[in-house]
Specification:
single chain, binds erythose-4-phosphate, 15 helices, alpha/beta, eight-stranded parallel barrel
């Protein structure tokens, strides 16, 4: 048995990829996409038919073409997963509650036009205060959300209080931050601050009985994945899935509800002011959230330009 097979006994394994072939190969339960992953897929000649279909369905509107592209990649991915696909809202709406709700409605509406039910989609939103408020509203309407760019405990607390379906606490980008800060080439797994962040959030949620699912994300090495075996879900890029599948042996469970219930983290209440204050106190989380929004926006703009230039070459259907 491989470490990957064995990991599946403890956590739901998700593919972190916009590559339809990779998703088909690894047959995960769910899949996650983001603007950077979908830019890479849109630039790949293998997926040109999906790009052309998006352009055709948008009838010459470049913004519409990008929305369609996200949704059509979601549809293709869903052919290979039994569960859900995560589709991200434009990073430019990260501080716009109304705009985020409207974009989520648009994506769910487009999915509906091609026969994909809302239960199979997680709307991915940046974990800003506005993103969390938008998610709270969407969840009340039955639209399920996945909160991304989550680097801090206060972000996780506010998401649970908002009743979101799932959070994606990032491991690798926290690890990247502290490696750079400490000017080291690695941080041992026992001291990994990204892993510690997910463990703290998981224990807090389970101890206090929050139903919000925890999906560890953004991994840099297999050790980080294995250190979180038992987390509700883990979203893993194809290169790490490959490595895990080539490692023989049992994966030991590291996180469990039973162990979490033995911890005693006090319950935290955060209103908007407290959330903003606590988030701002954490330099890593503040920097990484801001940088993450900028990076996703850069890739979304590149994708928009690509769609515009390709649309010029493809007659609208
Ligand atoms: C998943 O939902 C995230 O978008 C992804 O794990 C981010 O990973 P990265 O830090 O490698 O970009």
């Amino acid at each position: 048995m491989s470490k990957l097979d064995s990991l599946k006994k403890h956590s739901l394994v998700v593919a972190d990829s916009g590559d339809i072939d990779a998703v088909a190969r690894w047959k995960p339960q769910d899949a996650t996409t983001n603007p950077s992953l979908l830019l890479a897929s849109a630039e790949d000649p293998r997926w040109r038919p999906v790009v052309d279909e998006a352009i055709g369905r948008a009838g010459g509107d470049p913004d519409g073409a990008t929305d369609w592209l996200f949704v059509l990649f979601g549809r293709e991915i869903l052919k290979h997963v039994a569960g859900r696909v995560s589709t991200e809202v434009d990073a430019r709406l990260s501080f716009d509650e109304e705009g985020s709700v409207a974009k989520a409605h648009r994506l769910i509406d487009l999915y509906g036009k091609i026969g994909v039910r809302p239960e199979r989609v997680l709307i991915k939103l940046a974990t800003t205060w506005e993103g969390i408020r938008a998610a709270a509203r969407l969840e009340r309407e039955g639209i399920r959300c996945n909160m991304t760019l989550l680097f801090s405990f206060p972000q996780a607390v506010a998401c649970a209080d908002a009743g979101v379906t799932l959070i994606s606490p990032f491991v690798g980008r926290i690890y990247d931050f502290y490696k750079k800060l400490r000017n080291v080439s690695d941080i041992p797994i026992e001291e990994d601050p990204g892993v510690a962040s997910v463990v703290r959030i998981y224990d807090y949620y389970k101890k206090h009985g929050y139903p919000t699912q925890v999906m560890g994300a953004s991994f840099r090495k297999v050790e980080q994945v294995l250190a979180l075996a038992g987390c509700d879900l883990l979203t893993i890029a194809p290169d790490l899935l490959q490595k895990l599948s080539a490692m023989p042996g049992e994966t030991e469970r590291k996180l469990s509800v039973e162990e979490a219930k033995k911890q005693n983290p006090p319950r935290v209440d955060l209103d908007e002011k407290a959330f903003r204050w606590e988030q701002n106190q954490d330099a890593m989380a503040t920097d990484k959230l801001a940088e993450g929004i900028r990076r996703f926006d850069v890739d979304a703009r590149k994708l928009g330009k690509l769609m515009t230039s390709l649309a010029a070459a493809v007659p609208a259907k």
